[in-house]
Write a structure and sequence with these properties.
This protein is mainly α. It has one domain. Helix content is about 75%, strand content about 0%.
Length: about 60
């Protein structure tokens, strides 16, 4: 379905963040590429925080039952 957003996958996001970290640490990576990687890392970190916040809220609701 066009325009349908894929569900967030925490494990994939963490894996991509690890790859980004390696690329940013590589001295051969250009400054323009670093900017691109940092922007993508920010998107992934935001997604991870939302995912973890949601998981914590679900766990908290289970504990109160």
């Amino acid at each position: 379905m066009p325009g349908k957003k894929k569900d967030f996958n925490y494990s994939e996001a963490v894996g991509e963040l690890e790859k980004i970290a390696a690329k940013v640490e590589d001295p051969s990576t250009g400054i323009d590429d670093i900017d691109k990687y940092v922007r993508r890392a920010d998107e992934l970190i935001t997604g991870c925080r939302k995912y973890l916040r949601s998981a914590r809220e679900k766990a908290d609701s289970i504990e109160t039952i």
